[in-house]
Amino acid sequence: MTNSTQHELTLVLNGTGKTGRRVAERLAGRGVPVRVASRSAETRFDWTDETTWPAALDGVRAVYLAYAPDLAVPGAPKAIAAFCEAAVEAGVRRLVLLSGRGESEAEVCEDIVRGCGTDWTIVRAAWFFQNFTESDFAGYVRAGHLALPVGDVPEPFVDADDIADVAVAALTEDGHRGRLYELTGPRALTFAEAMGEISELTGSEVGYGTLTPDEFTAALEGAGVPAEEVAFLAYLFTTLFDGRNERPADGVRRALGREPRDFRDFVREAAARGAWTA
Ligand SMILES: NC(=O)c1ccc[n+]([C@@H]2O[C@H](COP(=O)([O-])OP(=O)(O)OC[C@H]3O[C@@H](n4cnc5c(N)ncnc54)[C@H](OP(=O)(O)O)[C@@H]3O)[C@@H](O)[C@H]2O)c1
Asked: Residue limits of the NAD(P)-binding domain (predicted)?
């Protein structure tokens, strides 16, 4: 495939996050000029403050469009529509949207991106492996016990490195225009099975417990999590983990011509670099 946008400035939103950071590193490695943006990045970009958008978009031709906190929260479609309009006006020609599997609210945002008049690619991802190493969940894994309101529902967890590889291909190569890639790992695992594999490969027992939705909400409230976030997390775990997303998809192979990374390989590598060592 040809590299058609190699010398054009690319804006990476959520640029300090799990996928954005990886996308930015890969683009820089390919010699693509990158502008990393978030509330704390050198280029300040805040989804809740449109006055920060024009400077971030100035001179940009392609955007890795990752929303925060999640495309399923109220207000996301409005923000995505306003951003797409601003992006087109600024001369952006290519948008690569990070979306989530099984979220009808996210699909509303996907439709907005499809209709905004630029080239587009959608990467619709499963639950990231890196939630177990780079988010609040990492602390629970490290402490030896994770508890969520999810029972024996398997999830085909996916590697954020695979997501970044697909996003970068879509941002820099031809052939991904107008494509929707469902990105998952090769196997679906329950949270209990995932903790079992971490236990086996680290040699330290990590237990898993299933909470009722009320127990989960009470635990978050007790830990001082803001009400809005509690409501979103409760929705996420009690609505999305009903089996709708359990089937692995072939997006990594379709986009890159290779298989996605397996959870065991991720765990082995994370354990070797001490990701769960206190
Ligand atoms: N995690 C998953 O398993 C998963 C799965 C599928 C899809 N997704 C999608 O991935 C996106 C977020 O991923 P994540 O939850 O894993 O977090 P993340 O990308 O690891 O971290 C959030 C990023 O967004 C930035 N951010 C937070 N609030 C912002 C705001 N108001 N304006 C601009 N930037 C902001 C943060 O940087 P600053 O703090 O510096 O602003 C950080 O770079 C969401 O759109 C979600 O739907 C996640």
From this structure: 15-173
**Tens of pLDDT, residues 193-219:** 999 999 999 999 999 999 999 999 999
Q: Which atom of ligand 1 is nearest to the CA of 128?
A: 3
Q: Is the CB of residue 113 less than 8 Å from the CB of residue 95? A: yes
Residue range of the domain that includes 167: 10-127+159-184+244-260
Q: Looking at residues 63-90, what average pLDDT do you find?
A: 96
184 C-alpha vs ligand 1 centroid, how far in Å? 18
How many whole angstroms separate alpha carbon 255 and alpha carbon 158? 15
Q: Is residue 225 part of a domain?
A: no
Does the predicted TM-score (pTM) go above 0.70? yes
Query: What count of other Cβ atoms lies within 10 Å of the Cβ of residue 236?
Result: 19
CATH number at residue 20: 3.40.50.720
CA of 38 to the centre of ligand 1 (A): 9
Which of 14, 23, 65, 134 for mutating ligand 1's site (highest number of atoms within 8 Å of CB)? Answer: 14
Distance 203 CA to ligand 1 centre (A): 31
Task: Taking residues 157-175, report their average pLDDT.
Answer: 97
